[in-house]
Hints:
Layout: H1 2-7, E1 24-31, E2 37-43, E3 60-65, E4 70-72, E5 74-77, E6 80-83, E7 93-99, E8 105-108, E9 111-112, E10 119-127, E11 132-140, E12 148-160, E13 167-170, E14 175-178, E15 185-191, E16 196-199, E17 207-217, E18 226-235, H2 238-252, E19 269-271, E20 279-280, E21 285-286, E22 288-295
Parallel strand pairs: 1-20, 1-21
Antiparallel strand pairs: 1-2, 2-6, 3-4, 3-7, 5-6, 7-8, 7-9, 8-19, 10-11, 11-17, 12-15, 12-16, 12-18, 13-14, 18-22
Amino acid sequence: MLLILYSCIDPFSPPEVNSDASNLVVDGFVNIGKDTSRIALSRTQNTSVLAATFKEVGAKLTVEGETGEKFNFTEKGGGQYYLIPENYNQSGKYRLRIRTKNGKEYLSDYVAAKKTPAIDSVTWEHDKVRNAIVIKVDTHDPKNQTRFYRWKFEQTYEYRSAVFSALDRDLVNREIIIRKDNIDRCWKTFSSANIALGSTIKLTEDRIKDLPINVVPINTNWFYVKYSILVKQYALSQDAFEYWTSLAKTTQGTGGLFDPQPSQVTGNVKNVADVHELVFGYFSVLTEESKRVFIEPNLGIPPYAMIWTR
């Protein structure tokens, strides 16, 4: 019976997933605070392609205000574009214009600038049931004007190599010497991959309290020496929040029987000459707030616990 049932199952590859279409992806925002704005341009590709993501180079990016002001991005290579802090109108509206190297022009909708409230605190707790560290964030807007939030973060952890190296090579004198500097102390940093969102639209007070934004299992061994997380907070418009919510459901909440079905999520950037062309990404204008915390819970397995046998 099992053989018969298995023989009835055929692989199915939707044409949308295997499409060779190369659509523009816009990732970034304009920071109207005191930091540099960064926008990355890339192209979609077939899921079976193992090559690195195709970067959109040679484009011209301009931020245009409703009252006529213009600010030009500078290309830094690899599809990365930067804009140094400018004198923005904090209550104005801006849009993004993109001219690609092949002559296509893209425009975003005009979006209102949003001021992000400060992060009140970033806390953590050891969840013994899941055996993981849960990172939580607290924030509030005393003016009750934000209501929609998004968070990104960068994680850095310190670790020790399992094998200690006490000797070094003197290339000039061609001899083995005692190493002057220890090289068993290392750090690794990487950015968040999940989309963390929060809303107070159904609350009387614009306050986020103890919202989990990251869960790290103890068995990763990131917490044995020292761990640090830099949390970045953004105030979103309702349209931007709905975009990121849909994207999170599509990319993070699929795979199970009762999970949402994958769907196409597009943002507020369009091709000027062809509004039917798919463009991915949502352009926002806002300020960024951040807070870093260090954690030393001494949880995990020491590197010297590994025993080498023959």
